[in-house]
Amino acid sequence: MLCCHTRLLAADEVSYQTDIHPLLLKKCGECHGETTRKADLSLATATGIAKGGESGELIVPREPDKSLLYEKIISGEM
Fold this sequence. Notes:
Blueprint (H helix, E strand, L loop, with lengths): L1 H10 L4 H17 L13 H6 L16 H8 L3
């Protein structure tokens, strides 16, 4: 039973490269991609995400509810 449960957890793992990054580029890339950086924010690279933009830090590590990205998603702005 434990091996089946482990498989289920492994299937639920999220990969930044295959799950998050493509979603950010699809939903936000037009304004915050490689060539266009509205509000000085680029979501095209990990460096750009870590840097943030004119509004400040985009992501607060280990505290998603304090992250600007989280606030934008929850508010429906994204």
